[in-house]
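Handout for the seminar on molecular recognition.
Each group receives one record of this type.
Step one: identify the two inputs.
Step two: read the structure output and locate the region that could contact nicotinamide-adenine-dinucleotide.
Step three: write two sentences on what you found, then compare them with the reference statements printed after the record.
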Amino acid sequence: MFDLTGKRALVTGSGQGVGAGIARALARAGATVAINDLKEERARAVVDSIEQAGGRAVVAVFDVGDYAAVESGIAAVEQAIGPLDILVNNAGIPQGMSVQPFRESDPEAWRPYVDVNLYGVMNCSRAVINGMCERGAGRIVTISSGAGTVGLNLGVSPYAAGKGGGISFMRHLALENARSGVTANTVAIGLIDNHTDPNVTAHMAKQVPVGRLGQPEDIAALCLYLVSDEASWMTGQTLELNGGSVTT
Ligand SMILES: NC(=O)c1ccc[n+]([C@@H]2O[C@H](COP(=O)([O-])OP(=O)(O)OC[C@H]3O[C@@H](n4cnc5c(N)ncnc54)[C@H](O)[C@@H]3O)[C@@H](O)[C@H]2O)c1
């Protein structure tokens, strides 16, 4: 099950963290994976690790928030490895970057969160959807956040709005294309272990019902199912994956 031999995938923001974990899992399952990131050295390191493990991967440096860059970046990927079967919209500005109550916030501060977390998802999806529909098959998965599905009193409204917009967009994309063999789903993830300060990690882990932060492999396992041929009846869904932090 979940064999991706012969499939071609793009994972955005996969130069580190969750995206790198997803990319490695797809490569282990047989896919050729394009490793997108803003930072070439990060993407190169992930490509090297996949190749050392016997997989196939290419570097794809572009800013998902810039449609022209996305269009030419994806065209270059497809030229190199062939038409994309799988898109994982993982690039995002995570929640920790700036925390500010809305009443104190500068409206301009919203822009990067919306550019990456919403426009980034839209731009990449727009660049692949027609090809997938014409070929009669495709898998689009967006990595979102519990902040996009529930309200939080944490000062993360721009992030949450961008993430929530991505969730809503995925539902519409799924239903507009449900008869074309293309599925679109969202994984709304909880707190991930970013391997920063061990004291912070231990403190945050206490907030998670199962008692630990998520690892990239936790997210990759669900993505592997969602992008597989076996998941053809799964579309338009938002799946919470968070160690029990948010239950629906
Ligand atoms: N870390 C968490 O606790 C957490 C929680 C909920 C949701 N998420 C979501 O999971 C996803 C991955 O998070 P992470 O913690 O692995 O993030 P991360 O910051 O560790 O890695 C993200 C990668 O994306 C790249 N990137 C950022 N902007 C980009 C752009 N415009 N174009 C291309 N690449 C870009 C970065 O250079 C970085 O390498 C994000 O969408 C994030 O919002 C993370």
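Reference statements: The chain is about 40% helix and 15% strand. Residues 14 and 20 are 4 Å apart (CA to CA).
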